């Protein structure tokens, strides 16, 4: 007999309604038909501007005598700017041009536009300066404000743009991919440069990691030790959980290529990878050796290859068996003591991990970046785990700068 209290139909309807209303959470949704235009936006810096104390007005808009100061936001995106067309009419004094003006949309959680702001469209041949002469906002159901600005062409001389640049006190960059996320959409240009360098380094290290350790024969990552090939399912799980190769130009599909034991997830939670996942300050689950067994399952790519592959198990049930080092035991001691290796030491590849695990401020600094760029890489267990942890930690540092 069917249940009278069956709520499945109601839940289905509610889920459909929530799916529609949740579209409002996407700042692009209501204006997805509007084209974006990249501009350099000059937002007024109220704190640095000094208006007339009585009249609250400026005695000069542009130039060295102007009390107005601006923050320059490079690569900002305005939506809905129409194609600029100049029309000429015959007036009392001959040909007259209609004013060039229009409206544009500013997405939520980006900037708070104000009357008196300026923007430049950089790919227009002439240096033309647009003035924001009105600003209105509407509040979405999510509580976010979306702004509509009105603008007009103010100046069409390069000299005016140069004068305005002299009034800039801070320079920022706009990150369009952060819109609608928990990350910053506007960051200082100095931080933007740091992030760009870090992303370049991360891409380089990912390339090194793939070149050294991706085995086309078994379609997964393998490292060598004593002329044997080792497959670490715990490192593969770490890559999957943290999307190591997803947000990169060098995308690689990562999956387990062998069947894991029933207690695999329990064992993973006791591994040093879990310490990295949870960022347990000053602590690390410290196993340095693992039991290794040949993978003979003919249902896998490993089992049909002529040369053997060995699977490593950090928490083996076998008392006796072949053991292989995972990471040098000395590394765990250096993490617990917060002691870095000299750059000429092969274990200096773990310095990023040491600083990260001890929650040091600026744990990816110029010295760490330089060492990772110039390190002598090869196919071995030290480079396998050192590169993998460094790639992960650089990604975490980038996230910290964007939050």
Provide tags for this entry.
8-stranded mixed beta sheet, elongated, 403 residues, 29% helix, 2 domains, 5-stranded mixed beta sheet, 10 helices
Helix content: 25-40%
DSSP, total strands: 17
Structurally, the number of domains stands at 2
Nearest-integer average pLDDT? 81
The poorly predicted ranges are 1-6
Spatial order of strands in the largest sheet: 5-8-7-6-1-2-9-10
Tell me about the biggest sheet? 8 strands, mixed
Secondary structure topology:
Layout: H1 8-21, E1 36-44, E2 70-79, E3 88-91, E4 94-97, E5 101-106, E6 118-120, E7 129-139, E8 145-155, H2 158-165, E9 168-174, E10 186-188, H3 189-213, E11 214-215, E12 220-221, E13 223-225, E14 228-231, H4 233-241, H5 264-268, H6 272-278, E15 289-294, E16 309-313, E17 322-325, H7 329-337, H8 351-357, H9 366-374, H10 381-402
Parallel strand pairs: 2-9, 14-16
Antiparallel strand pairs: 1-2, 1-6, 3-4, 5-8, 6-7, 7-8, 9-10, 11-12, 13-14, 15-16, 15-17
Helix pairs in contact: 3-10, 7-8
Q: Describe it for me?
A:
- The chain has 403 residues and is of the alpha+beta class.
- It has 2 domains: 23-181, no CATH class; 191-402, no CATH class.
- The chain contains 10 helices and 17 strands.
- The strands form 4 sheets. The protein has an 8-stranded mixed beta sheet with strand order 5-8-7-6-1-2-9-10.
- Strand 3 and strand 4 (94-97) form a beta hairpin.
- It is elongated.
């Amino acid at each position: 007999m069917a249940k009278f209290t069956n709520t499945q139909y109601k839940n289905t309807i509610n889920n459909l309604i929530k799916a529609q209303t949740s579209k409002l959470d996407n700042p692009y949704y209501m204006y997805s038909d509007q084209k974006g235009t990249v501009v350099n936006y000059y937002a007024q810096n109220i704190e640095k501007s000094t208006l007339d104390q009585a009249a609250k007005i400026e005695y000069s808009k542009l130039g060295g005598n102007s009390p107005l100061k601006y923050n320059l936001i490079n690569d900002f995106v305005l939506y809905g700017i129409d194609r600029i067309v100049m029309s000429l009419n015959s007036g009392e004094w001959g040909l007259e041009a209609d004013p060039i003006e229009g409206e544009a949309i500013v997405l939520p959680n980006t900037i708070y536009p104000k009357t008196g702001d300026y923007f430049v469209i950089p790919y227009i041949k002439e240096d033309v300066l647009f003035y924001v002469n009105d600003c209105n906002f509407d509040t979405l159901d999510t509580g976010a404000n979306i702004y509509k600005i009105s603008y007009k062409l103010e100046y069409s001389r390069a000299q005016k743009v140069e004068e305005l640049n002299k009034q800039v006190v801070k320079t920022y960059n706009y990150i369009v991919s952060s819109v609608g996320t928990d990350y910053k959409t506007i960051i200082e240009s100095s931080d933007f440069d740091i992030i760009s360098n870090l992303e370049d380094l991360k891409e380089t290290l990912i390339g090194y990691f793939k070149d050294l350790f991706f085995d086309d024969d078994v379609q997964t990552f393998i490292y060598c030790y004593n002329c044997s090939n080792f497959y670490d399912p715990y490192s593969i799980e770490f890559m999957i959980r943290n999307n190591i190769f997803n947000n990169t130009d060098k995308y690689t599909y990562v999956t387990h290529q062998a069947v894991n034991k029933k207690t695999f997830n329990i064992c993973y939670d006791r591994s040093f990878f879990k310490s990295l996942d949870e960022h347990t300050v000053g602590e690390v689950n410290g196993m340095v050796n693992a039991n290794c067994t040949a993978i003979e399952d003919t249902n896998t790519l490993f089992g049909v290859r002529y040369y053997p592959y060995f699977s490593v198990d950090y928490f083996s049930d076998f008392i006796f068996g072949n053991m292989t080092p995972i990471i040098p035991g000395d590394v765990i001691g250096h993490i617990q003591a917060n002691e870095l290796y000299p750059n000429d030491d092969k274990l200096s590849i773990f310095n990023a991990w040491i600083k990260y695990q001890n929650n040091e401020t600026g744990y990816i600094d110029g010295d760490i970046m330089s060492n990772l760029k110039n390190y002598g890489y090869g196919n071995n267990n030290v480079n396998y785990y050192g590169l993998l942890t460094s790639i992960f930690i650089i990604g975490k540092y980038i996230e910290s700068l964007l939050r």
